[in-house]
Amino acid sequence: MQDQEIAATPTVTICGAGLAGSLMAIYLARRGFQVEVFERSGDPRKDQAPAGRSINLALAERGIDALRGVGLHHRVARFALPMRGRMVHGLDSEPLLQPYGQSDSEVIYSVHRARLNTALLDAAESTRRVRIHFSQELLELNLVSGMADFLDHASGRRYQRPVQPLIGADGAGSAVREALARHLEMEVDARLLDHGYLELTVPPGPGGRHMMDPAALHIWPRGNYMMIALPNADGSFTNTLFLASTGDPSFNSLDSFDRFHRFMAAQFPDAMASLSMLEQDYHENPVGIMGTIRCPHWHAGGEAVLIGDAAHALVPFHGQGMNCAFEDCAELDRCVAESATWDQAFSRFQRARRGNADAIADMALENYLEMRDAVLDPGYVLRRALEQELERRHPDQFVPRYSMVMFRRIPYALAQQRGRTNLEILRKLTSGVERLDDVDYVLASRLVQQLEPLEPEAPNDMTTT
Ligand SMILES: Cc1cc2nc3c(=O)[nH]c(=O)nc-3n(C[C@H](O)[C@H](O)[C@H](O)COP(=O)(O)OP(=O)(O)OC[C@H]3O[C@@H](n4cnc5c(N)ncnc54)[C@H](O)[C@@H]3O)c2cc1C
After folding, report:
1. Which of 305, 336, 358, 459 has the most CB atoms in a 10 Å sphere around its CB?
2. For residue 53, what pLDDT band results from cuts at 50, 70 and 90?
3. Residues 25 and 35 sit within 8 Å (Cβ to Cβ)
4. What value does the mean pLDDT of the chain take?
């Protein structure tokens, strides 16, 4: 099986029909494969999505491009809300918008996870080559025999079936990754963040209107913790409180609603009136965990490969986990098209993506500090204004790191490297400077012109037609 020819393979199996698994199924169906997808949960089109699991997500250019690759971006645009910047809510100041980019086209989109998943599942099934088996959990995988044990949650029956080649899109707690780790005797580096998250609801205001500006991602930075809010199409917002798990204040120390309410009222006073379901959310929504998973091998020969969170779970602070998982799908599809065997395709895929996944994992961790703390720092605000000014003056050569990650498809590792160079330039130019007008733009030009030009930005085609 190891060198199995791709051209002679009728069926590919995918474990997990979440965001990556369902998009991957569409890509493979378009290449002519029959695709069997096994999903532990019930069909989200019939069952209610579980509470407290990032109800909405920020979709950016990398994710959009992968949807574009299967002609789905226009469909997703119907329920995607553009966000043009961060609305920063200081404790004692009026909210202030920090634009993400230079123009109206440089926006990210708030998308409803369940709606997006539904759109992908519908599109996968409409290819007529994809069969999705819901409530089927992969329990064990034998990478020598190519057989997997599944549990049918409806009947409680356990059964075996052949699964090679297998794509593990079963998320951060991946059973496929566990089997791979055993088979290859590899160490998986899984680091849980010592902060958790709690989702809170801001229901629609009178007449179904949003209670805050819906064209922004709202942030309440508070140093060691923060709250954010993303808009939903029905006029509501989903807020997420990110806070330490232990210590004071922490999810541990806020162990009664009374304490929690006092903390929220003191730290987020301008949000309290709209958080009308606070008590219910506090009692009913789970505190989620977050972490980074790095894995030295993503595949075992041509038998199985990992994609999405199964290969590289990220903390959510750059809004890139799904975007990166979608980019994986497009890349794996390219590798399959360019390879004769599954082993070749999977190892090409790992080569193309692993360093990039490591880079975005680092940048996502760094962004937590930026969001919860730095956005209020005058030095940061000046550097941010200067990087936008430098981009205006030298659009081919100087692109802010945030824009490289969110609005471009520059490999993450290159964005990380160029981001470091940018920071050196910005620090040099702002040393002893308090206002943008006082920057030495002759020196700026000299420094920026030493940089290699970057690929131009793709036009924004997130329209409904
Ligand atoms: C609070 C939070 C906010 C986030 N915000 C953003 C954001 O703004 N933008 C962004 O790009 N990303 C964001 N992410 C990350 C994003 O949610 C993930 O990166 C994305 O869901 C990964 O997709 P996936 O398909 O790899 O995994 P998942 O979405 O986790 O899907 C895995 C699927 O596999 C199934 N499964 C698991 N085990 C088995 C098994 N043994 N057998 C069968 N099926 C199985 C699961 O039921 C699930 O359906 C956020 C994450 C969190 C926690």
Report:
1. 305
2. low
3. yes
4. 95
pLDDT the model gives residue 443:
98
Calculate how far, in angstroms, residue 325's C-alpha sits from the geometric centre of ligand 1.
9
Q: How far apart are CA 199 and CA 197, in angstroms?
A: 7
Residue 459 has pLDDT above 90, yes or no: no
Q: Average the pLDDT over 230-246 and give the result.
A: 97
Question: pTM of this prediction?
Answer: 0.97
Span between the terminal Cα atoms of the chain, in Å: 44
Q: Name residue, tokens 């007529």.
A: 128
Q: Average pLDDT in the 104-129 region?
A: 96
Return the DSSP state at 262. H
Residue 14: closest CA among 41, 29, 36? 36
| Residue partners of 80: CB distance under 8 A and separation at least 6 | 59, 109, 110, 111, 462
- Amino acid letter at 417? Q
Q: Cα–Cα–Cα angle for 64, 68, 71, nearest 5°?
A: 135
- Whether ligand 1 lies within 6 angstroms of the CB of 358 is answered as no
pLDDT recorded at residue 465: 72
Q: Is 323 in the pocket of ligand 1 (CB under 6 A)?
A: yes
Distance 6 CA to ligand 1 centre (A): 28
4-10 contact pairs (CB < 8 A, 24+): 4/164, 4/165, 4/302, 4/341, 4/342, 5/340, 5/341, 6/336, 6/339, 6/340, 6/341, 6/342, 6/345, 7/340, 9/33, 9/165, 9/342, 10/34
The domains of the chain are located at 11-79+112-190+291-367, 377-448
**pLDDT above 70: residue 70:** yes
Q: What are 435-455's pLDDT values in tens digits?
A: 999 999 999 999 999 999 998
Q: Is 196 in the pocket of ligand 1 (CB under 6 A)?
A: no
Instruction: Give CATH superfamily name and number for 11-79+112-190+291-367.
Output: FAD/NAD(P)-binding domain (3.50.50.60)
